[in-house]
Amino acid sequence: MVEAGTARTLKDWISSSSRVAVITHTNPDGDAIGSSLALALALSRQGLDAQVIIPDGLPDFLRWLPGIERSTTFAYKKEKAVEIIEGADLIFCLDFNDPKRIGPVEEYLSKSGAHKVLIDHHQDPKQFTDIAISETWRGSVGEMIYLLLKEVFEQDVLNKEIATCLYVAIMTDTGNFSYASSYPEIFHVVGDLMKYDLDKDMIYSSVYDAFSEDRLRLQGYCMQEKMVILPQFHAAYISLTDEELMRFNHRKGDTEGFVNIPFAVKGIRLTALFVEKKDRIKVSFRSRGNFPANQIAADHYHGGGHINAAGGDSFDSMELTLSKFESLLPEYSKWLKDA
Ligand code: 5GP
Ligand code: MN
């Protein structure tokens, strides 16, 4: 995966460093946390002090991951997080293409004099690190970390804990291998991970069967009351206001995956999820086929992402956000309407 020169530089930086910070993005998902913990665990097996920085909170479904004690949330433990970043001589940035994606942590990243390495799979990475390993065709950063660990370290640094984190990263960023995974190498990687006594079924269940009753009822409410289908555009959306979230005792991570619900309806090519936050409406898009979800996110929602999974923000009211979204669809009809 990595060019020989880059691998050599990375090896040099790793062997000359003692403290490493691994920074991942706001609103972290399974790939963000899984790949970051795997890298931190592997580096710590090599004798380095490696810590993970999460800008905001950790969703409950990832709290059980091995190595989670190596993570510090900037929003809750700012002093410790700043100390880790300021003390690091090597910083890895995982699973984001733009320093804006780490919110207030950006300031400390840019001030740091450490060697900086980006490892990411999003389109059009901004240049903010010394080395950037960007492979947009990969399903997850977890897969990239696996390949990197195999390439950079002479001996095998993987073990069951690291394999578990990597599998969570790969499994979640491919929707349990339902997208972004149609190439042979990903299954070679997973096949090798299985050799580390990986409990694949336990991992699935820990991630996907671990929600509260409230969350499942909120999901039911979304399907029954809130899902809007626009058959003429093969599109659908779901919106949730703060009041609705409170009614279902919402916890961080509860709306994760809701954006995929409408795909169960035959013919849907674009889905959107609008969730009210304190100061904005968080927008998520998912698409099938060649509809560029990242384009609609970038054009109208200050966001971006991948072709089939993207997101951004709206600063209008919910009502206006939804009516604007509906009125945008004709603009994209070349991808949505039947030929
Ligand atoms: P999600 O819908 O799960 O929050 O995000 C899906 C993908 O969209 C993320 O992996 C990320 O690539 C992208 N994304 C989500 N929100 C934003 C945003 O506000 N800005 C940018 N640039 N990308 C985003
Ligand atoms: Mn990812």
- The ordered H/E elements are HEHEEHEHEEHHHHHEEHEEHEEHH
Strand order of the largest sheet: 3-2-1-4-5-6
Given the C-alpha coordinates, what overall shape results? Answer: globular
Give the biggest sheet: 6 strands, parallel
CATH homology superfamily of the largest domain: inorganic pyrophosphatase (n-terminal core)
Query: Helix fraction?
Result: 25-40%
- Please state the second-level CATH architecture of the largest domain: Alpha-Beta Complex
Which descriptors apply to this entry?
339 residues, alpha/beta, inorganic pyrophosphatase (n-terminal core), Diaminopimelate Epimerase, Chain A, domain 1, 2 domains, six-stranded parallel β-sheet, six-stranded mixed β-sheet, 13 helices, 12 strands, 18% strand, binds guanosine-5'-monophosphate, binds manganese (II) ion
List the helices and strands and how they pair.
Layout: H1 4-15, E1 19-24, H2 30-45, E2 49-54, E3 71-73, H3 78-87, E4 90-94, H4 105-111, E5 115-120, E6 131-134, H5 141-152, H6 160-173, H7 184-194, H8 200-208, H9 213-226, E7 228-230, E8 235-240, H10 242-247, E9 270-276, E10 281-287, H11 293-300, E11 304-305, E12 309-314, H12 318-328, H13 333-336
Parallel strand pairs: 1-2, 1-4, 2-3, 4-5, 5-6, 8-9
Antiparallel strand pairs: 7-8, 9-10, 10-12, 11-12
Helix pairs in contact: 2-5, 2-6, 5-6, 6-7, 6-8
This protein binds guanosine-5'-monophosphate and manganese (II) ion (MN).
Manganese (II) ion binds at residues 31, 95, 121, 140-141, 173.
